[in-house]
Amino acid sequence: MRIEVMISGFGGQGVVLSGAVLSQASVLSNYYAAATYTYGPEARLGSTRSEVVISDEEIDYPKIISPDYWIAMNQMSLNTFSKRYPLDKTVILADSSMIKYFNPVEGKVRAIYKIPATDEAERLGNRLVANMLMLGVFVTVSGIIPLENLKEAIRRMVKPQFIDLNLKAVDRGKEIGESLLKGVKV
Amino acid sequence: MASQVKVQQIAVSDKLCKGCYLCIWACPWDVLEISEERNWRGVKKPYAARIDQCRACRLCEWYCPDFALQVIVDEKEKRELLEVEEKYERPWLERVRKRDEIIKEGVWWLED
Amino acid sequence: MYVEPGTHLMQGDEAIVEGALIAGCRFFAGYPITPATEIAERMSRRMPQVGGVFMQMEDELASIMAIIGASWAGRKSMTATSGPGYSLMQEGLGYAIITETPVVIVDVQRGGPSTGLVTLPSQGDVMQARWGSHGDYATIALAPSSAQDMFDLAIKAFNLAETYRNPVIILADEVIAHVREPVKVPPHEEIEIVERRKPTVPPEEYIPYLPDRGEWVAPMPAFGEGYNVLVESVMHDEFGHRIGTDHVAAERTIKRIYYKIEKNVEKIAMYEEKYMDDAEIAVVAYGSTARTALRAVREARNQGIKAGLIRLITLWPFYDRLIEEAANQVRAIVVPEMNMGKIVREVDRASKGQAKVISVPKVGGVLHHPDEILAAIRSAVR
Amino acid sequence: MIPEAEFEHVLAKKYMRTEIMPHAFCPGCGLGIIERMILMAFEELGQEEWDRTVFVSGIGCSGWTPLYFRRDAAHTLHGRALAFATALKASRPDLNVVVVMGDGDSMGIGGNHLIHAARRNIGITAIIATNMLYSLTGGQMSPTTPEGARTNTTPYGNIEPNFDLMELLKAAGATYLARWTTYHFIQAKNSIKKAVKHKGFAAIEIVFQCPTYAGRYILNRPDPRDMLQWFKENSIPLGVAKNKSPEELKGKIIVGEYLHRTDRKEYTERLRELEERAKGKGR
Question: With an 8 Å Cβ cutoff, are C180 and A36 in contact?
């Protein structure tokens, strides 16, 4: 088993942290994991991407060949990477608060789930937790990692004062994920 | 004008003196002169031509950049010099000599 | 104080810091540079906790001199940098070599030349690690391929540095510095740590640069211990006194600092072989590229091609015999590198024409796609 | 009578590597006098201080100065002596670290390290031997070459203004500063004693005679005796200089103790405090 998860967005959306948290959650679930990230020279608003490979054996190539899941957090990255990778087996979890045009990927992928993550996060109190909300959706939709392990990873890696908010975002993500699986539009 | 201090010797090293004559410039009492003859190093060393005028102010010593010159006032100073030689310089030179011996035999990493 | 035994999810740069601390590193000097900055940041937090000194220096010229100074103060010391900073360190590296000072230098390679590809990986500094400073010398360079390697090789690097009194370079790259993956930390007492060999003779009998018969380096005292050592950047004799025109003494010194590395290649060289037993095509790779290569080799095996991988862990001194033996076994050697082709020259030289050597260069700041290496393997079969 | 063939001064016998002497300096070079100032300072400070003193130097004629001492000494790279010394002091705060540098070494190629060592106020004694040009390479312009002087790289006269080391280091944060010439033997020796005992970055600039190049090219006095005479006649004590106009001070060497302050904390003390704060904090 080798599952490749790509998280793409711009700097400041927590792309790197969510890759780190996802790899931690994978390790807690007794998988091997390797998380790498690619970033531009800018600290904020540059293009950023986390690549997480989850496997039941030691990981050789740590980068993505063809993503199984793609958490896309902004329009620019959706446009860019839709051209770079084969996407026929890819499930896209897209932040529909940030992405309005899906034509670059429509018809090329296995499924697209549109989640207004940033709007939902704002409703929870801080738009910065959209990344964790998306991870909550991801673990629910993919079923690879128990939700509790994701929460434990957050407790280990997130600054103490933000843990509660992040956990709330994960729970909201889980709800959204469950309704998506039932085919309910969010 | 003879001094009250009796200075035994103003030693000037053949090994170290390079003949810059800063000692002569520094001496307020006109004690030192340049020798007529060159020593084995080719230097015309300064020497104490008028040692009776020396008051052991040691300015010549201080301004000698080569540690070549010392005003030896009396037996005590001479003894101290030899003591220092015995205590500090000899063990050090022994260490240097040991190095020379080993090197002379040839170093092992260049063998065969 | 140290990271506890067990498996931890760590980033490569975190692993290298924890490994270095366990190895006994107690001085770090550095200057911020992407993508090596995280190492300095972690060191700044961790070093004082273990009683060590962290210093952010004014530049890389100062950083390398600082770790050499700290090493002579008796501390195991390290710096971390990337391409432009590594270039600035070359003169200081030569100083560490001529004065036989154990230090560890981490170069997290990024794309060059010059400021280059600031945030992207590369293996462009491989030759600089061997030949970067002027003059004749030999050097030790290690290439980690995982966060685990960053931990393990940090310890190995300090051990080698202390054993051979030589700088050791860890040639990481951006991918390995930033990869977050599980790292196994063994029980601390099981980790082999080489401590600095101190003189056992009194100062009067100690000769700073003259090893005993059969030894390559003399024991090394620290400053202030009474041994009165001259640490001399000018070509010097066994006592540390500079050589003016004594070419015989100069030859002795140069040959010793060269031979102590090159003649011990069998002891220094580390490598890993996978699927090589019956291999007909060998892939020789190192660093993060070795992981891509492994993927390609497995893919080739799936397609019925007998491919194998030789992962070089020690890049310098180059282990000629390993490649020569492989060349006698296989038909072709594929050498993928994140540069325009550097180690491939060594592979070509060491294989002595016994196998076809195929270079697979990759530049632009990205890992090879496994298919690119696979294509080269397939082309070698034809 | 003591035989003179192999004679060495008592200070040389006690402190110096006499096996490699006479040293490589030109006849009449002031660096030998600076060596003697250092040794006499330590002779007065006592054996205990000497035993915990180490030397660091850079490249240039000045870099050779401490290499003749039978002590731990590092002959580093051009300009990098202070970087080496900073780490040495930070690692071993109990040692006296004495750095000897030339004007090119300290203010030219090593200028960055100089100002940062002063900024950190690390407890190093920097003895900066200034001869107004680069002499090891054969007489080229340095950051202290007077304007208008002809050297091998300023054949039409130097167009660059020079550094005032004392002002530079005062602004950078040094806490002990003095300037003397090789003529001011006792004063310089006393300053060295003070600097070694001082907690903080101490710099002593000693203008010395380079008869071979500075004597011939800059002062037009190729004889070391004439150069010392010139130092004697052209140096003005700080107190006297205060009441003189810039015109009167043109071309003069203003000597004296420029600064001695104790209100800035020394770097290794800060390091020790930092360690206390960091300990007990988890990984």
Answer: yes
**Please, which chains are in contact with B (at least 3 CB pairs closer than 8 A)?**
C, D
Give tens-digit pLDDT for C216-272: 999 999 999 999 999 999 999 999 999 988 999 999 999 999 999 999 999 999 999
Confidence (pLDDT) at A47: 85
B-D Cβ pairs (cutoff 8 Å, strict):
119
Q: Contact C301/C275 with Cβ under 8 angstroms?
A: yes
Nearest CA in chain D to C3: D283
Look at B109 and C259 and tell me if their CB atoms are within 8 Å.
yes
Residues in Cβ contact with D7 at an 8 Å cutoff, skipping those fewer than 6 apart: B11, B12, B13, B14, B15, B16, B68, B70
- Give all domains of chain D, ordered by start, each with its CATH number: 28-281 (3.40.50.970)
Classify strands C332-337 and C356-361 as parallel, antiparallel or unpaired: parallel
Domain boundaries, chain C: 1-268, 272-381
Q: Is D232 at the interface with chain B, CB within 8 A? A: no
Task: Tell which residue, C312, C313, C288, has the closest CA to residue C373.
Answer: C288
SS3 D216: helix
C292 pLDDT above the threshold of 70: yes
Name the DSSP class of C110: E
CB atoms within 10 A of CB C6: 10
Backbone φ, ψ for residue D130 (5° rounding): -105, 125
Sheet holding A32-39, edge to edge: A111-115, A91-95, A69-72, A2-10, A47-55, A32-39, C180-185, C6-11
CATH code for C272-381? Answer: 3.40.50.920
Statement: residue A185 has pLDDT above 80: no
**Both tokens assigned to B23:** 């000692």
* Chain D residues touching B103 at Cβ < 8 A: none
Amino acid type, C341 = G
Strands (E), C31-103: 53-56, 76-81
pTM score, two decimals?
0.97
Using the 8-state DSSP alphabet, how is residue D38 labeled? Answer: H
CATH architecture of C1-268: 3-Layer(aba) Sandwich (3.40)
CB atoms within 10 A of CB D6: 10
For residue C35, how far is the Cα from the chain centroid?
17
Local structure of C366: helix, strand or coil: coil
pLDDT tens, position by position, for chain D (283 residues)?
899 999 999 999 999 999 999 999 999 999 999 999 999 999 999 999 999 999 999 999 999 999 999 999 999 999 999 999 999 999 999 999 999 999 999 999 999 999 999 999 999 999 999 999 999 999 999 999 999 999 999 999 999 999 999 999 999 999 999 999 999 999 999 999 999 999 999 999 999 999 999 999 999 999 999 999 999 999 999 999 999 999 999 999 999 999 999 999 999 999 999 999 998 675 5
φ, ψ of residue C159 to 5 degrees: the values are -60, -45
Task: Retrieve residue A3's tokens.
Answer: 């599952």
Of D20, D67, D85, Cβ closest to residue C69: D85
List the single residue in C with minimal CA-CA distance to A17: C180
Closest CA to D230 of D245, D214, D243: D214
Query: Which chain C positions have a beta carbon within 8 Å of D83's beta carbon?
Result: 57-58, 61-63, 65-66, 69
Q: Cβ atoms within 10 A of the Cβ of A165, count?
A: 17
DSSP state of A129: G
Structure letter (DSSP) for residue C245: S
| D235-237 vs C281-285, strand pairing mode | unpaired
**Residue D242 sits at the chain C interface (C-beta within 8 Å):** no
Largest interatomic CA distance in chain D: 71
Please name every residue paired with D69 in a beta bridge, in sequence order, or none if there are none: D16
Of C213, C239, C252, the CB nearest to B99: C239
Using a CB–CB cutoff of 8 Å, tell me whether D43 touches chain B. Answer: no
